[in-house]
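Repro case for the chain-ordering regression, as requested:
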Amino acid sequence: MTGYRLPTGGRVNRAAPLTFRFDGASFAGFEGDTLASALLASGVQLFGRSFKYHRPRGLVGSGSEEPNALVSVTRGPGRFTPNLRATNIDLYQGMDASSQNRWPSLKFDLGGINDRLGMFFPAGFYNKTFMWPRSFWEKLYEPVIRRMAGLGQPPSEIDPDHYAATYAHCDLLIIGAGPAGIDAALEAASTNQRIILIDEQDEAGGGALSDPSLWPWLERSLKALAASPNVTVLTRTTAFGYFHDNFVGAVERLTDHLADLPEGPREKLWRIRATDVILAQGAIERPLVFDGNDTPGVMLASAAKVFALRYGVAVGESVALMASHDSGWNDAFALAGAGVSIAAIIDVRDAVDDALLAKASALGIAVRLGHSVIGVRGRLGVKAITVARNDGSAASDITCDAVLMAGGWTPTVHLWSHSKGSLAWRDDLGAFVPDVPNENVRCVGACAGTWNFGAGVVVDVLPTPKDPARLKAFVDFQNDVTAKDIKLAVREGFRSIEHIKRYTTNGMATDQGKTSNLNGLQIASTALNKPVTDIGLTTFRPPYTPQTFGALAGHAKDALFQPTRKTNIDSWAEEHGAVFELVAQWRRARYFPKAGEDMHAAVNRECRMVRSSVGIFDASTLGKIEVVGPDAAEFLNRMYTNPWKALEPGRCRYGLLLKEDGFITDDGVSARLAPDRFHLTTTTGGAARVLNMMEDYLQTEWPDLNVWLTSTSEHYAVIALQGPNARKVLEPLVEGIDLSAEAFPHMAIREGTICGIPTRLFRVSFTGELGYEINVPSAYGRSLWERIMAEGARYDITPYGTEAMHVLRAEKGFIIVGQDTDGTVTPFDAGLDWAVGKKKPDFVGKRSLARPDIVAPGRKQLVGLLTDDPNVVLEEGAQIVADPNQPVPMKMIGHVTSSYWSEALGRSIAMALVDGGHSKMGQNIFIPMPGKTHVAKISSMMFYDAEGARLNV
Amino acid sequence: MILIHCPYCDEKRAELEFAYAGQAHIARPLDPSTLSDEEWETYLFIRNNPRGRHHERWRHIHGCGRFFNAVRDTVTDKFETTYKAGEPRK
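-- result from build under test --
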């Protein structure tokens, strides 16, 4: 047996036994155990297989620094969590946990062959070996590597849990509820400050939890804090990231420790903004680097103390200590006091404090100074160690079943470094400590480098007479990086620690190098023969420990990932079987299939009905901006390409908006309602962008203009009524507006009422037919829609969706900004030079239209395409070439931007951006597609009713 | 998440209320047609990329809606000051 439960001691509740399963076998523990302590108490020493070599691994630490003991916990469908540290898992009745990265079993793992082949897997192995041939990567190397290497499996089902999030504000945030953090909280509690004290463990106390002499103090202190109304103590809460201006992200685990899942969220994300922050995160003990230091049973001395005094578990029956620091001695004495037999204390130093020697002698512990462990026997667990003098002489064996490593301490500066505080190197500690803060933050306790653990020396690799090339002396346990790998990286020319890190992967595992960074740095320092300070430290980045995606996503998933904007008419479309599509965040009806119709049939019917009778379309999503003020016309004149000042009230104009670089950014029809009032429309997706751009010019370039801009996109429902019968449908419903062609021509606006509802009635057309766009206050949208449907029934009025709208506009050569343009298209490229006011001295983008590259020949220009085979509908995005017989890769001369079946023409039509397209009218171009190359002729984009006879009726 | 002082609201608010709007103090030429291609190119495309103090524009887009200017240190990401549009460069 290797580990066992001590007869007394610890904070576990021995009156509350629990049973659980690990790799299918039953085990017992107590309330207050972690999975790690309960397994250890049951004699389990083997917790997992390593990442690369599949070496057997046991516990190294007792908390979030643990690199090896990664396990998966399942609690029903979708509730599978991989890569949890066994040392951080609070045990509950019935827990079902399993080890990872082994097949077929933890004790017999086929992947262990990698370890025998270890000499073929040096640092940078993947970079060196799997480069060639390139095609092998995807098909062979990556799948094999993914199966062999890796951590736990990803969950396979949807997570049924939900996750909460909250904001919190406080005067003082204290991270870490060990003695230093609790002291800081007690000191501040007497003020009126709002204080939040958080700790990642299941109870507050930190290091005090493994020091029974401090338990009375701890109980008193926590009672005092609980009695302070201005103090909030959060346990099981990990501060994972420290962001700008004292903004700290923390995740509170609410249910993972409970046997029965209650209603409510699994975890809660805390976004905490604090005036001041105190970091009291403590320090992490450093492993020692020697051959076989990853054998199960070799662990940190401090961890062994935690298991003994906090959980009442001995890590072995006969335990040896390998130390370079005084703290390990004291931990060994504490273990001896708890009833654990200490086989020997080995210290690499030639001399230590006499008091330590005296105590060891008093306890009857054999001591070997100036010695090091040079080998470990046992594969699945320690059976004995070989020790020798530092000069390699006098090797002898010591029988033991656990080895404690005491290599000194590394202050936990992760959050400090997130906050961009600087670090200072302390030679005496062999560690970086916080130096100059970058926020309102300070460190207290061990994370500030102030501790009473005693003294020690820093050793990069323990002295050994063995061939360094054959040592399996691990630095990064989780990523399987050895001292040899780091030395190899240096030999191969890597100098920066950032490069050494990436080449060897030291410190890049999920533990972020909590136990490996400083050892790696020391080894690189020795190999480079440079002081540590010249090599630097790698950057710490959030998260401090891995967090669930669920906690970070919170409610922002599925339907709540982003809002779905719906018009007032949307519910009618849904009730009438519309198929929807998303346009920006708007849900729009794409088509309205009748029974038995596919999309093609529905769209053809909708197009036919608009051209032959009348169609009705929900255009409410159009962006709308009300432009008001005495300088409104002047302002629009400067913004848009076309002239606005002469536009009479009651008339509309197509407006083209460029960015200052001369490229089209938006378009839309706008109306002048009064000398000082315009009703602008923008594209559905462009509304916010256009308003922002206009505000920018108005506020910062032309603040002298007296103009006000208001977004009215959601204030109006817009119903487009299009087709030769549109006027007849509208006539009986409208009051106070003469609809006759003479009184109300194309591109005009009238105000009046429709069905008693105030309306801004546009006579405009995006279909080429006689058409109206009826603007009414949003809330009336659906009821007006239904009235028009009833009125139009005798004309077989047909609702149509965005797909038919696209076909109808393409038949007329009307562009859609963002589909037929891509941010590099000028008005001239798009064939819209008619919309540019040549006489205007200036407008946004005008100067750019004269830039050399814009006037140069050969630009991509928008043209129509007619395929030789009228039944071929080209794919949008398809590439165009001039010569289909040229060798691959061919020279592309453009691409198809829009392509549809035109029911009106009985053939396909398309639009395309083609190099010098305007001068290629009538020429053939080619569209190579898999299996066939299509031929098409460049044509005008005005495919239907070019003279506009259907509009002006 | 940075806190930004809006000089119009006179309050420090969270970054997510604001939108970045490029380098500050680049006035649009009063008569672009008189500019050479090079001058127009400079106005249109050439921007500073300093290590340290950077004058830049922000908009309190989810607040008062106003554009304002700021000096931010690109190394520390700290705002030195913010001031109203139209005020002299700080």
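Ordering looks correct now. Chain A touches chain B through 24 residues (CB under 8 Å).
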